[in-house]
Design a protein that fits this description.
12 helices
């Protein structure tokens, strides 16, 4: 009986994993089809990071007021602006769930046997793929400005992983907020409140070393700090990660897993 139950358990686990991947890929396909119908969204989203890099980066670089070690300020800033772009794309992703609820789409998905974690993971992965386009734009701007980028295959693969992880994490956080607030007006207000504190309480535009003690503590609790640190260690030739690439990846991965589990539990509550 024990021997015969093991193959059955394996088949059940494989079937569940296959179903999870199938549902996740279906959600990703639907989300990306929206982007294909309106690719201008990518261009409009590139305006803000371009302004940060070309205006803020150039002005503060001339001041020489921020200690950035062996990197000039513009080079130091570039990974931070990529992380900012990932955050800004992902943090408002939850509003799509509210729209789907209002259109009756979400109720149909929740009535299906699809795993809630697969529905959440599909949204998270699609946000990551959208964010990759921002990465391409910022790389092009950085090349124009002669930032010393690291183009080794391992570094590029790491940057792709960092972008996917960061966008998935913040989009899942956004979905969790949407499940709690449930209305577009409240969600937009909370999203706007969250973006700036997350950005300024990180190492995106200045190093942690020059922060006051209370902000240092906040920065160490902020996932965006680890996203920036990971990108800075991978993107820049001669750059380094303050916490270590392994630590950055571990923090982002564990935070994402926790958020997916919590959001999957909360997901049905948005239709109540």
């Amino acid at each position: 009986m024990v021997r015969s139950s093991r193959p059955a358990a394996r088949r059940s686990a494989l079937a569940e994993a296959s179903g999870f991947l199938r549902i996740t890929s279906a959600i990703v396909s639907v989300e990306l089809s929206k982007l294909r119908r309106d690719p201008s969204e990518l261009l409009t989203r590139s305006v803000q990071p371009a302004l940060w890099l070309l205006v803020f980066g150039q002005v503060f670089g001339r001041l020489h007021a921020v200690p950035t070690g062996n990197l000039n300020y513009f080079t130091f800033l570039t990974p931070g602006i990529l992380a900012q772009s990932v955050l800004f794309i992902a943090i408002f992703y939850g509003i799509s769930v509210i729209w789907e609820r209002d259109l009756g789409i979400l109720q149909k998905l929740l009535a299906s046997p699809a795993q809630r974690s697969a529905l959440v993971s599909g949204k998270a992965l699609s946000a990551g793929i959208r964010a990759l386009a921002q990465g391409v734009i910022i790389y092009l701007l950085a090349l124009i400005m002669q930032v010393p980028l690291n183009f080794s295959p391992m570094a590029l693969a790491g940057v792709v992983a960092a972008i996917l992880l960061g966008a998935a994490l913040f989009s899942t956080f956004s979905l969790m907020v949407a499940c709690v607030v449930k209305t577009r007006e409240r969600f937009m207000g909370i999203g706007q409140v969250l973006t700036m504190p997350l950005f300024f309480a990180s190492n995106a535009i200045y190093p942690i070393a020059i922060m006051p003690d209370w902000l240092k503590l906040t920065a160490h609790l902020n996932p965006l700090t680890y996203e920036v640190d990971l990108l800075r260690g991978l993107m820049i030739r001669g750059g380094s990660s303050s916490f270590g690439v392994g630590t950055d990846l571990a923090v982002l991965s564990m935070t994402l897993l926790l958020l997916v589990l919590v959001t999957a539990k909360l997901y049905p509550s948005i239709v109540r």
